[in-house]
Amino acid sequence: MSFTIHGIGVSGGVAIGHAHLMTHAGLEVPRYDVPPYQAAEESARFDAAIKQVRAEFEDLRASIPATAPAEISAFINLHQMILSDSTLSVAPRRIIETENCNAEWALKLQTDAVLARFDEMEDEYLRERRVDVIQVAERVMKALSGNPGYVPPPLRADSEHNRILVAHDLSPADVVQFKRHRFASFITDLGGTTSHTAVVARSLAIPSIVALHRGQQMIRESELLIVDGSQGVVIVDPDEQVLAEYQRRQLKFDLERQKLRRLKDRRAVTLDGVPVELHANIELPTDVVEARNNGATGIGLFRSEFLFLNRSDLPDEDEQFEAYRKVAADMEGMPVTIRTYDLGADKDHDQARVTTNPALGLRAIRLCLTEPQRFITQLRALLRASHYGKVNILIPMLATAVEVDQTLELIQRARQSLDEEGTPYDRDIKVGGMIEVPAAALALGIFIRKLDFLSIGTNDLIQYTLAIDRTDDTVAHLYDPLHPAVLNLLANIIRTADRAKVPVALCGEMAGDVALTRMLLAFGLRQYSMHIAHLLDVKQIILKSNFSQLKPLARKMLRASDPEKLRAMLENLNA
Ligand code: PEP
Ligand code: MG
């Protein structure tokens, strides 16, 4: 039966393909129907898996040498306790019967529900036990597969093209892996429009939707889906007419993209001759090829923290140097702005660190300054790479003058150590700061005096100005780039920086939103940095804009107190 589910579209376009359900625990779990008359058999299969894992634990316990540390046996005790708890060992049987589904799927649903309860716990120790729950559930899952110790391999690349990944939630680290394993689209139950998960999705240029709430429960493995990323709609099991209509729309979308390619080598200049720089945001060195294919005249934001994710160790100086050097060299003298690692919040390499308000916690430059040795390793790698192209260093999440001073001092220390070794680097390297905390936007003078350039991070600036968690789908509707407070901050940053003759760019999602291109131009923005997929759309608007006509409208837009009226005004502007 065909039905539709609504969420928030985070990356436009149409994808048509078969659902591939992804589990919380990272295991590939298919869902299939089990008719009521086979439910008892399926439950028995589940019980057998539980029994088998119980026996595995007993074997494990028996194999512990007498000299082994006491923690090992405590660890097995804990896992045995989790396994014996009825929430994991009994509740899935009920799900098998009520949902008419297979045992793996029932276990997955129950594990997700238990994990959600863990996430809400106040007690940090208990919250951290979620990892143990996942490990026990994985053991049972493996036993169910009839192959203990077996984890299904990832899908082969050629089978992924028409697969739509359906997940409860995905981390930015999960999504960046899709750069290697291509899916046609992905959709999730949780997430906000500018969560890093959505940000990376946009960089993949595949249609994607977040905040579907119950999508994973309603969609079955292999079901045919249409994902309309522009409208935020998923059509499950479409009929032939709907399918034909979306195939037509998909073709039209692809043709328009091909037409845009013609603009690749055109300079981005307004009709009245105002030049604009259009730079790319990237996550991995390999993204440079597509950035150049889409006519980027620089890298405005290399989110270097992605080099630190999806691994248990840290990249050492040489590995980082090679990544930065490659981007600098491949851009052949065009500017490459590399942001020092912005870890913490929703991109944490330290899964054990659980804090109440991660976005307000030890994140970005705050984290770097508590780990000076690790930070200097990155700074040395960045400086070394600057010898091979035009590298700029960008500091994320600045809020105070002390943070700038301490960072500049560490850069100085890194320079000195390279000088002592005689290692070459660009002695004129520029250091800039991200303006993404309202305090920095309001006290801009401090940063202008100490830094060579600024880059406005609107994703965080909006989050912190409006007090809206960018990862939380329940408040996503309140996340409004057109709020007068946000617009006035933006216009003020651009104006103040211009007066001080300090270059200012904008690298948040607003830069790639074509509905906002002309408004930002009117505010005086001349440097946009965005997802590769949006570069040519924005260029097309710039080429058709007249700055002298737009400029007088800026004041009116800043005075608009109703975002809806402003939206209508912007539509007229783009008509
Ligand atoms: C921003 O905050 O706007 C930004 C570009 O940085 P990130 O999205 O990585 O936080
Ligand atoms: Mg940011």
Q: Report, as a whole number of angstroms, the end-to-end distance.
A: 40 Å
The level of helicity is 40-55%
Q: What's the count of strands?
A: 16
| Unreliable residue runs | 147-158
- Helix/sheet category: alpha/beta
**Small molecules bound in the structure, each named once:** phosphoenolpyruvate, magnesium ion
Radius of gyration: 26 Å
Biggest sheet, open or closed, and with what strands and sense? 8 strands, mixed
Strand proportion: 5-15%
Strand order of the largest sheet: 1-8-7-3-4-5-6-2
Question: On the 0-100 scale, what is the average pLDDT?
Answer: 88
Helix count equals 25
The dominant shape is globular
Give an overview of the whole structure.
With 575 residues, the protein is an alpha/beta fold. It contains 25 helices and 16 strands. The radius of gyration is 26 Å and the shape is globular. About 2% of the residues have low confidence. The site of phosphoenolpyruvate has 11 residues, from strand 10 and helix 19.
